[in-house]
């Protein structure tokens, strides 16, 4: 999902909104992260934008529902998605109260639903990526 953001999106948003700060999720392309003003986890993005002064301008490179939430919760800041097409994570879109309840009820009854399994080498690389993301936020 985050890989859809391109360096030209950063250039376009900067041209359209002079003085805008670009903040992106670390899962974005390396080239996009290098062009951004800030890179961080979802929590970092939320804290950074929420704690920014009123009147600041932000282009956010992450899932569109988070961008919309930030916009609604911070009406005194100008917040736009990095890409006009909107970055929708279909998996995150399904995280809602009914699905969470269903998963928890199944776990309580001893059933594991939607378990994800990956090869050991993929899991090892994923642990490294997660550790790096955690180090960025510290």
Polypeptide structure, described:
It is a single chain. With 138 residues, the chain is of the alpha/beta class. The chain folds into two domains: 1-89, Rossmann fold (3-Layer(aba) Sandwich), CATH 3.40.50.10800; 96-138, no CATH class. The protein has seven helices and four strands, in the order H-E-H-E-H-E-H-E-H-H-H. The longest helix has 18 residues, at 120-137. The protein is globular, with a radius of gyration of 17 Å. It starts with 6 loop residues before the first helix and ends with a helix. The mean pLDDT is 90.
Please give the count of helices.
Answer: 7
Radius of gyration: 17 Å
Strand order of the largest sheet: 2-1-3-4
Instruction: Calculate the mean pLDDT score and round it.
Output: 90
Q: Write the CATH fold name of the largest domain.
A: Rossmann fold
- What top-tier CATH class of the largest domain fits best? Alpha Beta
Second rung of CATH, namely the architecture of the largest domain = 3-Layer(aba) Sandwich
> How helix-rich are the residues, as a percent range?
40-55%
Number of domains as seen in the coordinates:
2
Structural class: alpha/beta
For the termini, the CA-CA separation is: 25 Å
The CATH superfamily of the largest domain is known as NadA-like
- Let me know the number of strands: 4
Query: What are the segments in which pLDDT stays under 50 over at least 5 consecutive residues?
Result: none
Question: Largest sheet, if any?
Answer: 4 strands, parallel
Order of helices and strands: HEHEHEHEHHH
Coarse shape:
globular
The percent range for strand residues is 5-15%
């Amino acid at each position: 999902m985050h890989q859809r953001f391109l360096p030209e999106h950063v250039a376009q948003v900067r041209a359209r909104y002079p003085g805008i700060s670009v903040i992106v999720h670390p899962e974005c392309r390396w080239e996009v992260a290098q062009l951004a003003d800030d890179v961080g986890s979802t929590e970092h993005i939320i804290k950074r934008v929420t704690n920014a002064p009123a009147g600041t301008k932000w282009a956010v490179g992450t899932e569109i529902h988070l961008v919309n939430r930030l916009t609604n919760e911070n009406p005194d800041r100008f917040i736009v998605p990095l890409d006009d097409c909107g970055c929708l994570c279909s998996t995150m879109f399904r995280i809602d109260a009914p699905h969470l309840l269903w998963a928890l009820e199944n776990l309580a009854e001893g059933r594991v639903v939607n378990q994800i399994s990956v090869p050991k080498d993929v899991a090892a690389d994923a642990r490294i990526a997660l550790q790096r993301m955690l180090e960025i936020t510290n």
